[in-house]
Specification:
Layout lengths: L1 H5 L9 H4 L14 H16 L1 H15 L13 H9 L4 H24 L20 H7 L3 E2 L6 H7 L3 H6 L12 H10 L6 E2 L1 H13 L7
Parallel strand pairs: 1-2
Helix pairs in contact: 3-6, 5-6
């Protein structure tokens, strides 16, 4: 799903990672009412917090309703509360509450990093905006910005969706190899007169909230 929608059609109506957040977040430039524009700012942490629980819920419920096949590794998430209860000093209810709190907080962190990681700045291409070219690479560059801070350290890259432009250009490569292709990417961008845009992380963070309020398309 990720490869076939997000990597082929980033920031379009075909990108599930863009549209699955609706109606809470609407990054597509269109007419929006006050609630759509600004309430999303307030509820963002709550929505982020339910990314992990929702994913797990639909996976396990889907196995019952739609006969999805579960595997042994689907039980891994439940090893944490089991160990907490076995070696901890609190009851099962308190254990479950603490476990769910851990999941919620980690989901908030993941959502904050991923949603603000480079795809939803207000200058990034979203469905309806004008494109310089329908070339696949130019489209990927238009729909993806990167951050200065998360380029060189491999741990930071892997934990913050760093080197995201390189990842979209070469999605099947190990991230450890992407720095070796930087010169090729830069030269190719010059050849096609395409912009490889990088911002500080806080500008991408702010730009994502501005994008939620954007109603007019970006023109070339």
């Amino acid at each position: 799903m990720h490869a076939m929608s997000h990597h082929l059609y980033p920031n379009s109506y075909h990108d599930l990672e863009c549209v699955l957040f609706e109606p809470f977040f609407n990054w597509i430039p269109m007419d929006k009412n006050f609630l759509q524009k600004y309430v999303s700012w307030i509820i963002s942490p709550v929505i982020y917090g339910f990314i992990f629980p929702k994913t797990g819920f639909f996976r396990y419920i889907g196995s019952i309703v739609n006969n999805y096949k579960l595997h042994w590794d689907d039980l891994i998430p439940f090893t944490m509360p089991l160990l907490m209860y076995t070696f901890g000093s609190v009851g099962i209810i308190e254990t479950v509450i603490r476990w769910l709190t851990i999941i919620f907080v980690s989901s908030v962190i993941h959502g904050t990093i991923s949603v603000n990681g480079g795809h939803h700045h207000n200058k990034v291409f979203h469905d309806g905006d004008e494109l310089k070219s329908l070339d696949f690479g130019v489209y990927q560059l238009a729909a993806t910005f990167d951050r200065f801070e998360f380029q060189k350290n491999s741990f930071a890259v892997l934990t913050t969706f760093g080197q995201h432009i390189g990842h979209h250009m070469f999605p099947t490569l190990d991230h450890a190899l992407l720095p070796q292709l930087n010169d090729i990417i830069y030269d190719t961008c010059k050849e096609f007169e395409a912009d490889l845009v990088m911002y500080p992380w806080y500008k991408l963070f702010i730009g994502q909230f501005i994008q939620l309020t954007r109603t007019d398309i970006n023109k070339i």
